[in-house]
């Protein structure tokens, strides 16, 4: 008898380890609930869990929840007994809750791997077909192992999976920035540019190498990456142009070359209405052209100053005509309100419904960034957010020089100090991004983190928690007269 008890204990432990936890506890559903409404809400919760990545982090329990929900739906369609339908719903709810538990475990054990995977997907690493599929397969083996209680396998293999996704992310960033430049360089090489313009081609290759090196070392430095990619592209196009010109000059006699250069200088002089200097060396002709350009610039600046003077005189004339200060303030206030409403309507058009919610709050504009994404427990700005933040920059610029507050919010998961620190860090990251891109002056933008103290939805569901994890950008237009 004792032997049988020991065997049963061993079998029970093996089952617990294989399922990653105790037997599923299914709580009954209130029989007074409407089955149709329960099925609809269950479908919404499953969809929200999938959006939160639970289907990947706990595939077995998630599929079970889907299957139980489908059985409940089929039972409703076929007119099954209400208690049978409610039983399927209760099981689907329990299975989805178990999937959430496993997903939390995965997020804890695979935090860096999940972050690297999200970063790779954000820059469309999926385009690399077989390489990405292999990385995804390795990742799913990790989540399945954690779901099955095989923690040692996950510990041994998570670092390799993390590095694979990071390599794919870097490859995607490099491809997005430099693929067209590589194609240009290949075209230039095939057309003989290295032979016809060797120095210029070497400079283009060097610019390309610098861009590649910077991406490898600073993959999230979007501004500098774009600058270096533009430089490499420009230098390649320049080398191709110089090679083409070099071939043309080889076919011309020396005097033809001199006349060709003279014609370009002469045309410019004619347009500037300067003296005909074709009897002078090319260097002196160029100096005369530059002097003519400087004179035009000076005249343009003088015109601007004259216009400013006229505006000031008109302002003084208005004062002398008896316009009171209060009347001017009232007019300015009404004009400001009109501009605010017009700009508000304009800014609403910038964002899709899944990107942001834009609304007025007294005399402020609030942009709730529903589409803002951060890695789990992280605050770094990743490339998937660049397009959305570019629209935020455009919205701020539409108000001239407003005051801006960036608010960070989290869900209620985790400790209060951790949530407050994370929300502040994320808000500050957005502030620094806007400063780095010259969107607003430093003294006109602040960052504030509120943790989970200002929820806009229930923290009891995955969908609600996703809504509470957000960034709000609050724009306060300048007051009239400031």
Characterization of this structure:
This protein has 482 residues and is an alpha+beta fold. The chain has 4 domains: 19-109, no CATH class; 174-250; 254-323; 338-476, 2-Layer Sandwich (60s Ribosomal Protein L30, Chain: A). It is built from 17 helices and 5 strands. The chain has helices spanning 2-19, 35-51, 54-57, 59-77, 82-109, 111-122, 129-147, 151-190, 193-196, 198-217, 222-250, 254-272, 282-320, 325-348, 386-397, 416-436, 462-468, and strands spanning 357-361, 364-369, 403-409, 445-449, 470-476. Strands 1-2-5-3-4 form a 5-stranded mixed beta sheet. α2 (35-51) runs antiparallel to α4 (59-77), α10 (198-217) runs antiparallel to α11 and α12 runs parallel beside α13. The longest helix is centred in the middle third of the chain and has 40 residues, at 151-190. It starts with a helix and ends in a 6-residue tail after the last strand. The model is unreliable at 1-21 (pLDDT under 50).
Summarize the structure.
This protein has 17 helices and 5 strands. The chain has 482 residues and is of the alpha+beta class.
